[in-house]
Amino acid sequence: MVIWRQRLLAITCALSMLALSPVVMSAETSVAWAVQGRPTAMAKSAVKILEQAGDEGLNPSDYDASILSKDVAAASQGVPLSVAKQTELDSSITQSLLRYLHDLHYGRVDPRTVYANFDVPPKTLNLQATLNAAVAAGDLSLAVKEATPSFPLYKALRPWLVTYRALEANPAWSGNLPPLPAQKLEPGAAYAGVGLLAARLVSLGDLPTGFLAPERYQGTLVDGVKLFQKRHGLTPDGVIGKTTFEQLNVKPATRVEQISLTLERLRWTPLMVDKRLLVVNLPEFELRGLEINGDEVQIPLKMNVIVGKALNTQTPMFDEQMRAIEFSPYWNVPPSITKAETVPKLRRDPGYFDRQGFEIVTRSGEVVTHLDDAQLAALQSGQSRIRQRPGAQNALGDIKFIFPNNDNIYMHHTPSVGLFQRDRRDLSHGCIRVESPVELAEFVLKGEPEWTPEKIREAMENGTSKTIRIKNPIMVVIAYATAIVKQRGGAIYFYGDIYGHDRQLRAALQKYSQRFQTQVSNTTGNLQ
Fold first, then answer.
1. Helix/strand/coil for 401
2. I need a labelling partner for 361 at 20 to 30 A (CA). Which of 116, 277, 297, 416 fits?
3. Residue 477 in 3-state DSSP?
4. Cα-Cα end-to-end distance for the chain
5. Average pLDDT rounded to a whole number, residues 302-322
């Protein structure tokens, strides 16, 4: 529970980030895409790959797909290309393919230009060697396969990208739903938009194909709305209020963008080497425990979490190893919280000190269990610090999961368990509160048979602070994905951009594309 230093990292779903390597190519590495002035079949295959970049959430115009398609088509007919023009075509196709492979594998923008301070191992795919090998084998799809991220989430999202692009032309999305007859639409009520609502839910897969809308908002139509609500991080109660109504009117193009942004962050992700890890997806307010065996991913652990407030205490994103667990922990109140919240509250209500089980620790290490003006002044000036003893009132609950990081973020339980039932759970000072601490401890301590559920609970309830080292540290990844697929072949889920990270990334990608659009406007028709 600490106010973090406005430091952002961009990592998502098993996710950590990487430094990008530039595409550098010399004339000696150019591939011959034309023979005797005519484009080869491989050249046409290259153009087709670039034209289909949108299927990967990329922008075909960033790779001159349309221009190269016209150039190859023109060069296939009429007068053969001159040696100079053939060389130019060879270089253009090679550069565009290398840029495409780079963006597909590494991402379009260096995440450090979008979010500050990340430091993880880069990926090391040799793009030129990958392209050369595919050309030698006569199959460019081999290079594309090598460059495409292999993460299960990436593979699961791609079909949905195509699905939501197709929805843009569906009549169910030609306009907004009619206004609600009241502040909310409850089951059984009349609504002029039941037909359009049903058609929209059918197009999304939340209602079966061929479903006929009822005269009122009722029955199976309500069930379809519940499924829609579940897929969008809302309470699945079937009541269409302001937020559900807004989400029902979000156009497919916006969902396409959410999917594309998640795919971009996945490209930043280095290969996962750990077989077990914990992933917190911040917009989803959920923690998962993953066990990885090759391409197979099992998720034996899932739970709700509470993360940092969007306004001023956002939980940062990073990946670090969980190395220790503290049972019956003290809560060392961060200085920022002490000065801004705790001291003012103690001045108004001195009895709060005893009720909360606080004590003061001086610079010399002396523990002071009484409160007076001098102690308050020392706390305000930073000469002393305040902590909360283990117990029922402790803000950390009865267990703390430690993964050392620069922002002093950790996971812990909380006595305020009712907060886990809220739809939106950005409520903390930055640390991550977990709903099921015993289950999390079991997952983390797997392989240490002495730590049974009973022993874990006993240590949590002991009241005496005890820290243990984890024999097999486990990677913790704090991620950010507003579009995910939770299981193979399953439905897609969308979540709000609670911290504005999608907005930042969208702006950076727009700048990236604008660079190429400017270049294209100056070179159009260069082979004609």
1. strand
2. 416
3. strand
4. 63
5. 84
User: How much of the chain exceeds pLDDT 90, in percent?
Assistant: 61
Res. 6: pLDDT tops 50: no
pLDDT > 70? residue 220: yes
Are 131 and 101 within 8 A, CB to CB? yes
Residue from 90, 95, 100 nearest 42 by CA: 90
**What amino acid is encoded at 30 in this protein?**
S
| Fold entry, domain 272-485 | L,D-transpeptidase catalytic domain-like (2.40.440)
Rg (CA), the chain: 28
Q: What confidence score (pLDDT) does residue 528 get? A: 47
Q: Residue 314 has what pLDDT?
A: 81
pTM of the model: 0.84
Residue found under tokens 């809560």: 331
- Chain position carrying tokens 């940062």: 316
Check residue 519 and give its pLDDT.
54
Q: How far apart are CA 167 and CA 252, in angstroms?
A: 6
DSSP string, 44-113: HHHHHHHHTGGGGT--GGGGTHHHHHHHHHHHTSSSPPPHHHHHHHHHHHHHHHHHHHHHHHH-SS-GGG
Confirm whether 431 is a catalytic residue: yes
CA–CA gap between residue 482 and residue 312 (Å, rounded):
20
Given a contact cutoff of 8 angstroms between Cβ atoms, the answer to whether 289 and 443 are in contact is yes
Cα 253 to Cα 173: distance, rounded to the nearest angstrom: 10
Task: Kindly indicate the confidence band of residue 152, based on its pLDDT and cuts at 50, 70 and 90.
Answer: confident
> 247 to each of 201, 241, 304, 385, 482, how far by Cα in Å?
12, 10, 22, 46, 13
With a cut of 80, say whether residue 174 has pLDDT above it. yes
Give the 3-state secondary structure of residue 6.
coil
Domain 169-250 sits in which CATH superfamily? PGBD-like superfamily/PGBD (1.10.101.10)
Amino acid in position 365: G
- The backbone region for 451, taken as left when phi is positive above 0, alpha when psi lies in -120 to 50, beta otherwise, is beta
The C-alpha angle 423, 427, 433, rounded to 5 degrees, equals 90
Sign, Cα dihedral of 125, 126, 128, 133: negative
Structure token pair of residue 461: 């309830």
Active-site choice (102, 105, 232, 412): 412
Q: Are 435 and 427 in contact (CB under 8 A)?
A: no
pLDDT digits (tens, 9 = 90+) for 39-70: 999 999 999 999 999 999 999 999 999 999 99
Look up 412 and say whether it is catalytic: yes
Q: Where are the beta strands (DSSP E) in 168-285?
A: 276-281
Q: Residue 360, Cβ neighbours under 10 Å: how many?
A: 20
Token look-up 């997806």 returns 281
The pLDDT value given to residue 72? 93
Q: Are 269 and 149 in contact (CB under 8 A)?
A: yes
Kindly list the domain boundaries of the chain, sorted by start residue: 27-106+124-159+504-523, 169-250, 272-485
188 pLDDT more than 80: yes
Helix (H, G, I), strand (E, B) or coil at 209: coil
- Dist CA 434 CA 446 (whole Å): 18
